[in-house]
Specification:
- The complex is a heterodimer.
- Chain A is of the alpha/beta class.
- Chain A is built from eight helices and ten strands.
- Chain A has a single domain, classed as Rossmann fold.
- In chain A, helix 3 runs parallel beside helix 5, helix 4 crosses helix 5 and helix 5 packs parallel to helix 6.
- By secondary structure, chain B is α+β, with helices and mostly antiparallel strands.
- A six-stranded mixed β-barrel of chain B has the order 2-3-7-4-6-5.
- The longest helix of chain B is centred in the middle third of the chain and has 44 residues.
- Chains A and B meet through helix 2 and helix 3 of A and helix 1, helix 10, helix 11 and helix 15 of B.
Chain lengths: 257, 405
């Protein structure tokens, strides 16, 4: 664990998050009063058994779903409870995702998959900068070791290569926060280790904070901090003092897309 | 717009989408061809009527006391008249000398025709040999009567004598053949010299009609109004007042029927577009269902519901634009190869027979406004019909969709 992180302002802060789903006439509580923080450039592991709420917490933090209670602050500003369009804008520019199942679009090449978040974020103005964006995407793919496979489609790549493409895609917008949901869960041990090492190295180089959900202790050990979820409750929350003082952090400290 | 590349990828890799374009292309191609043929038919009919009748046709009352010089003087006084040509029209029967028809009018070899007397300065009657007056006959009539250039043709008609019709018969020499391309006209009209016709018919003056051509920029309707006003100012007596008609009113019922047909075609076009739009909406709904997972990925990467809707509207426009382009190319190819297509469809026989469709060829005219309208209506319809699939796509729940895989 990196003790210095506790003295820094959190880039991502969750306060008292609760989430439940309707199950017939009953209610299934998935998260209960979860509070946590993630600092600039910090890599934290989110551990827990299957069904403990890891994925749900990542979805709430990534604005893919809405919470019943609580709040989410990104770089000091509250981002939960916004309109679908506003949430989408934040996802496009400030939060990167890496999924267990890669989630690449099969009809697009590796390069086009990496470019996708930029196309979404920039809209029409993408046309004026596409040369620059393309170079950046190609460089990212080269950095993840796929410089020779830019034009390959996902089905022409191995699982490890597909996850590398997904990592490059998550980092193209230079988000301050990257949420990874069991990124090595679909890979064999050796490939998983390589992909994880790559993910951590690239995020550190860019100062991106990572919250990595896993149930693999070895992976968690390679992170700076471990958060444990049990039955929807965080049993090792972040330092209490930082949770009580969600001041706006200096924006300059976080990388911007 | 930024996701156009993805729309194009979908289009290239999902066979159902090019098939939808093909459906639109077939509709557009057929409509383009039908409209081009219909417009061509209409334009040639109009031009044919105009050639025969002039812009304005003035029918002089029988036994009019006014002389040809007097009429010429009047027409030179009317502003807008470029040229005034006198004609004498008279009905008669025609048959080839030596055929049974001339002696036995019960046979079908004898044809009822309109004899049109014109001045030699207006029409070339070809080389005239011998004593007989020349006659120009339409190609279908010449073929029907079995005439060759130089043959003697008999005309049976009546002459006017003190108000009583007196049967008469006169020989002409078939000196030239003409073809306007309009079957019925070429079959029913023969041209002779006006003086020759006047000598048969015994009419005085030697004209029954004046063909007026308007100056550039003056419509037939305006010219007709000027002529009418001029004759009214002359205060001619009621029986001496000529009948003034534009080429459009002479075409009258036929042109109105053609315009109605055009309206019906437009309605049919609307239905074809609706059918194409229906298959488009079905295709897009299917694509939304099939690509639900991709939609979830786009949403997770930051595509707003509006952007996702826009993507499907864009996809619809990609499909319809390609369909329109292919359809126009197909239509263009069809109108350039109509004779071949007609022959192919008819198993070697022409479908558009000149006896029925009046022309010995298939006239074609592309109306740019109609083509533009077709494109705009198709694009608007494609946009409107993509709204439902787009709306359904925009309602995709990210978590549920990504988890489903």
């Amino acid at each position: 664990m990196n003790d210095s992180t506790s003295t820094m302002h959190p880039v991502l802060l969750a306060k008292n998050l609760s989430k439940s789903y309707r199950m017939g006439s009953g209610k299934l509580e998935v998260l209960r009063d979860v509070s946590m923080e993630l600092h600039v450039g910090e890599v934290a592991a989110l551990m827990g058994s299957s069904g403990s709420g890891k994925s749900t917490l990542l979805q709430l933090l990534g604005l893919m779903d809405s919470c019943d209670q609580g709040s989410v602050l990104l770089r000091g500003r509250r981002i939960d409870g916004r309109s679908a369009g506003a949430s989408a804008r934040i996802r496009a520019t400030e939060i990167g995702f890496v999924f267990q199942q890669f989630q690449l679009i099969q009809e697009l090449s590796a390069l086009e998959n990496v470019l996708l978040p930029r196309r979404i974020a920039r809209g029409m103005s993408w046309f004026s900068v596409r040369g620059e964006e393309k170079r950046k995407a190609a460089q990212l793919l080269t950095d993840v070791g796929l410089g020779a496979r830019l034009k390959h489609r996902p089905n022409q790549l191995s699982g490890g290569e597909q996850q590398r493409v997904a990592i490059a895609r998550a980092l193209i917008s230079m988000p301050p926060v990257l949420l990874a949901d069991e990124p090595t869960g679909n890979l064999d041990r050796q490939t998983g280790d390589e992909v994880l090492e790559l993910l951590l190295r690239m995020a550190r180089e860019r100062g991106t904070a990572i919250l990595l959900a896993t149930h693999d202790q070895a992976i968690a050990d390679s992170c700076e901090r471990i958060l444990r979820l049990e039955d929807g409750c965080l049993v090792t929350p972040g330092p209490a003092d930082s949770l009580d003082s969600p001041e706006p952090p200096p924006e300059a400290t976080a990388p911007t897309p | 717009m930024s996701l156009l590349r993805l729309a194009w990828s979908y289009f290239c890799q999902r066979i159902i989408l090019p098939m939808a374009s093909l459906g639109i292309a077939l509709g557009i191609g057929v409509l383009f061809t039908v409209f081009a043929v219909f417009n061509g038919f209409l334009h040639e009919m109009e031009s044919s009527i105009r050639n025969v009748s002039g812009d304005v046709n003035v029918e002089v009352p029988r036994e009019s006391p006014q002389t040809e010089e007097q009429y010429r003087k009047w027409f030179t006084q009317i502003e807008g008249v470029e040229k005034a040509v006198p004609q004498l029209q008279w009905f008669g029967l025609i048959g080839r000398r030596g055929s049974r028809a001339v002696d036995d009018p019960r046979t079908s070899d004898l044809s009822g025709i309109m004899l049109v007397g014109v001045d030699s300065t207006e029409l070339d009657f070809g080389e005239i040999n011998g004593e007989l007056p020349p006659m120009q006959v339409g190609a279908p009539l010449a073929k029907k009567l079995g005439l060759s250039i130089g043959d003697v043709v008999e005309i049976v008609t009546h002459r006017s004598s003190r108000g009583q019709p007196v049967p008469t018969r006169r020989s002409f020499r078939f000196s030239a053949e003409y073809s306007t391309g309009r079957f019925d006209q070429d079959l029913n009209r023969v041209f002779v010299r006006r003086a020759d016709l006047a000598s048969i018919s015994g009419t005085n003056p030697e004209f029954s009609h004046w063909i007026l051509h308007s100056k550039d920029g003056i419509s037939a309707e305006n010219l007709a109004a000027s002529v009418d006003t001029h004759f009214e100012n002359l205060q001619l007596n009621r029986f001496d007042f000529p009948k003034i008609r534009t080429w459009r009113s002479i075409g009258g019922n036929f042109l109105r029927a053609a315009e109605n047909q055009k309206g019906i075609l437009t309605v049919v076009f609307g239905f074809i577009v609706l059918v194409a739009a229906y298959q488009l909406i079905a295709t897009l709904l299917l694509t939304v269902a099939e690509k639900r997972h991709d939609i979830g990925i786009l949403a997770a990467l930051g595509a707003s519901p509006k952007r996702i809707s826009g993507f499907f509207v864009g996809l619809s426009l990609v499909i319809s634009s390609i369909g329109i382009c292919l359809g126009l190319l197909l239509g263009w190819w069809l109108i350039r190869n109509l004779t071949m297509v007609e022959s192919w469809l008819g198993g070697g026989e022409p479908i558009f027979r000149e006896e029925i469709y009046k022309f010995d060829h298939i006239p074609v005219a592309v109306d740019a406004t109609m083509v533009g309208l077709m494109i705009v209506v198709t694009l608007i319809t494609a946009t409107l019909f993509s709204l439902l699939p787009a709306w359904r796509a925009s309602r995709t729940r990210i978590v549920r969709t990504l988890r489903r895989r």
